[in-house]
Design brief:
Number of helices: 8
Order of helices and strands: HHHHHHHH
Structural class: mainly alpha
Strand content: under 5%
Largest sheet: none
CATH superfamily of one domain: Cytochrome c-like domain
Number of strands: 0
Distance between the termini: 156 Å
CATH class of one domain: Mainly Alpha
Shape: elongated
């Protein structure tokens, strides 16, 4: 096979490669999918990945537990807890699953105990106890509130769902944690008087101008005082 035939073969291979590259480039440009501006819907219970990792949740006002817990629906909370039972057991003495047993979890230390469950280092370093406030914040978005936790549940965005679930978890104890007293209602503050009115005296309070100081020289007793103005 002479050099002319080799050049023909090499030219054909290069031509084919160039043709494939051009077709691939054009196809990608024509059929490139357009990303939507925002997702059409959010699936509850599925973690939504983010490029920069979990974002800390915005601060929110904590419920008045002395008011909301007695009014919460324990039955609704029990229904919601079915989502928890995919990874947790709730009965007394229940075994640990993917997550720890949750019996008597309210007001218990966080990241310890639970029958020797292996907690993540993030949960252990967080420390503290599972107070009503802590459960409320954690259940909204576990991965955002404690980055690095093993719990992959996306969370409960509804405040009512979280309150009802906490009310049900509160009952799962031989000695349920005490419910705090309702917070006292704040008295409405009276509107302060304008600064300009404070310095303005009320009508009728104005004092008469001081009388002109006229010194009268008195003569001896019994004698009339001479009229000095005529002099």
């Amino acid at each position: 096979m002479d050099s002319f035939e080799w050049n023909k073969i090499i030219g054909a291979v290069l031509g084919t490669a160039i043709f494939i590259f051009v077709v691939k480039t054009v196809a990608e440009a024509v059929y490139e999918p357009e990303e939507p501006a925002k997702p059409g819907y959010v699936v509850e219970g599925v973690v939504e990945p983010t490029a920069g990792g979990a974002t800390a949740p915005a601060a929110e006002v904590m419920p008045d537990w002395g008011t909301v817990l007695p009014a919460a629906s324990v039955d609704d909370g029990k229904s919601i807890s079915a989502r928890c039972e995919q990874c947790h057991t709730l009965e007394k003495g229940g075994p640990n699953k993917i997550g720890p047993n949750l019996y008597n979890v309210v007001d218990e230390p966080r990241g310890t105990g639970r029958g020797g469950f292996s907690f993540s280092s993030a949960m252990q370093s967080k420390g503290g106890t599972w107070t009503y406030d802590e459960l409320f914040k954690f259940l909204k978005s576990p991965g955002a509130y404690i980055p690095g936790t093993k719990m992959s549940f996306a969370g409960l965005r509804s405040e009512k769902d979280r309150i009802d679930l906490i009310a049900y978890l509160h009952t799962l104890s031989d000695s349920p944690a005490p419910i705090p007293a309702p917070k006292p209602k704040e008295e409405p503050k009276a509107d302060a008087a304008p600064a300009g009115d404070a310095a303005k005296p009320a009508e009728g309070d104005a004092k008469p101008a001081a009388a002109e100081d006229k010194t009268v020289e008195h003569g001896p007793p019994g004698k009339p005082v001479p009229d000095t103005k005529a002099q």
